[in-house]
Amino acid sequence: QVQLVESGGGLVQPGGSLRLSCVASESIYRVNVMGWYRQGPGEQRDPVALINNDGGTFYANSVKGRFTISRVNAKNTVYLQMNGLKPEDTAVYYCSLAYYKDSRPDYWGQGTQVTVSS
């Protein structure tokens, strides 16, 4: 059982920045896809950004140009740098781990709340 622990959420004003971190309890060298999903109130959980082991990335259209995902395998960590935050970015953000591409995540973090409000 892999544990994913997120940190870095909080309250920020529109236009502000946050960096989310997710540390895995085991090595992620052989993990194909690390990612971030988010779920707003009454909404489904959708992918925000994904990163493959070869460095390939996917971003949801709504965050392109504002969010950047990265991973440091040696630290078992994946990051999400969020700039230019908007109120519609408010959600619980979940870290994910998938051993295989094009498959549902095998593990989830517990979630971290991001609130964008003035």
Task: Indicate the topology.
Elements: E1 4-7, E2 10-12, E3 18-24, E4 33-39, E5 46-52, E6 57-59, E7 67-72, E8 77-82, E9 91-98, E10 107-108, E11 112-116
Concise account of the structure shown:
By secondary structure, the chain is mostly beta strands.
Backbone structural class: mainly beta
Write the H/E string, N to C.
Answer: EEEEEEEEEEE
Measured as a percent range, the helix fraction is under 10%
Distance between the termini: 39 Å
| Beta-strand residue fraction | over 45%
Provide structural commentary.
With 118 residues, this protein is mostly beta strands. 0% of the residues lie in helices and 49% in strands. It contains no helices and eleven strands. The strands form two sheets. Strands 2, 4, 5, 6, 9, 10 and 11 form a seven-stranded mixed β-sheet that branches. The model has no long low-confidence stretch (mean pLDDT 96).
